[in-house]
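Hey all, sorry for the wall of text incoming. These are the two entities for the joint prediction.
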Amino acid sequence: MKKIEAIIKPFKIEEVKAALSEMGIEGMTVTEVKGFGRQKGHTEIYRGSEYTVDFLPKIKLEVVLADNAVEGAIKAIVDAAKTGKIGDGKVFVLPVENAIRIRTGETGDQAV
Amino acid sequence: MVWVKIRNFQSIMFRSLPLFIAALLFLGCTLSLNASSTSSGTAPTPTLEQRAAYADAERNNTDPSTTGIPPMASPAHTSWMMVSAALVLFMTIPGLVLFYGGLVRQKNVLSMAALCLGITALVAMIWWAVGYSLVFGRSFAAEGASGFAHAASPFLGGTEFFFLRNVGVAPNTDYAFWIPQSVFCVFQLTFAIITPVLIFGASAERMKFTSVIVFAFLWFFLVYIPLTHMVWGATGLMNGVWNPKAAVPAIDFAGGMVVEMACGWSALVLCLILGKRRGYGREPMMPHSMVLASVGTGVLWIGWYGFNAGSALAADGIAANAFLTTTLAGAAASFVWPLLEFLQRGKPSVLGFCSGAVAGLVGITPACGFVDAGGAVIVGAAAGVISYVACTTLKRALKYDDTLDVFGVHGVSGTVGLILTGVLATSVTNPNLLGAAASSNGLKAALEGHTLWLVQLKAIGITLLLLIPATLLITLVVRALVGLRPGGEIESQGLDIHDHGEEGYTMNG
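and here's what came out:
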């Protein structure tokens, strides 16, 4: 099992979700996050006081999959989230030791 | 040792406070019960001519006493004034709760709500006990009053309305012929509430709640009461329209001196002594919700109709003019401020629209019942431009931390509005500028000789002479008694949790 963590542009979440659903992925967790990478922030001005806002809003998508589904899912996310402009985000893949479905007690690939 | 003494004093003060308040309440209730009600007696039935003259006087908001019919409150004027009083209170709760609350950081949003509500309650109690009487009484100027009282009468009213004795449905014809004195009293109370609340926009995010309340209490007695009597009291020093003996016959329709200059200049003194917020200039200190702030601006603007048009104290032509001029000045400044931002930076901001609107409404406050539509646009545009410069360039150059720009908006636009009132006031709009009092105290002559703006400058000078030293003294006294700031850690954590034990926004819903 692997966990995919993708940091993407907020307006891309619907397209990414649709792409993942199309390949039969039935669940995911989404969080509104802030951060920065190479994309610069912007300045905000309130009555002449200028503030540089480095942390930009992004969406963090987390999904845990059986090993054989991982490559396809990564491709789906990258294709859907790509604009080609700076700030498109990143995808991380992490190993997962186990998963348990709380309702039934199923474990491993059955639980994801 | 000194510190120990001060701590003792503080604890004694707080321990005996409930006892003091209880005694005050008891005294007040006793006095109120003994208050005599005015008996009208049996007057002869008025003739048709008398009744017609009486009805005309009601319609024109003039003195009905010559008709021989005893004055009674008019339902028409009274209903507008009750609505106006509610509108002005609506500016503080929730207007300033939203506007000030939205402009501070999330961790301090409740501290703004607390001071709006706390000062509303505090000032209402002072107003009932002694405040109203000291501002709008006139017993110090009465025949037979002592020489000291006479000397004080341009600065303080009197004692006859302590605990609102005899403040009932009968009009107080010193101020308004056609509304119950009780309604006049509540209307004026709402001004007395909002003025001290406004000050604490400058000290926002770094002044303890206890210190705010002690400051507001002292400031109310030392500044608000004398200043308001001087400007609006029947025997006031600077009440040009209504006091025939006013030494400085200035004009201030709805509170350019009483409210705007008072809160703005006091705010400057307070924030200079208080010092900057921790991390000012290094950390981002952005408004946590421009949504709340812009909704609050709308509430303030709507409430301002009660403030300005209500200050006619009747639903008459002067009120109607003030309604129009208020709208135009608010709109003019709300147009100019973001336009300047657009020209300078390329983006008109929502805070720019809000700040401009408030600056224009502040500017027109002293002028609204005296100038015409064209004058209102001039006042609004001037207020917008000058406050814009004050809040952006001046503040940065002088490096003071006025959190919500109380000085830049209220102090500056209030002062500008007062001067322009002297230039643009016209008796076509307000015939009272040529009335009996104005003729004998020199206001009429100043208006006709185009020197009224000089009288206004003099009044501004006197106001500053009271405001600056008194606020300085109060701030230092509060600092010695209870301290001003909560200390570093607490300031970083936010005032809400420490001062009130609450958070504005919680996660678990």
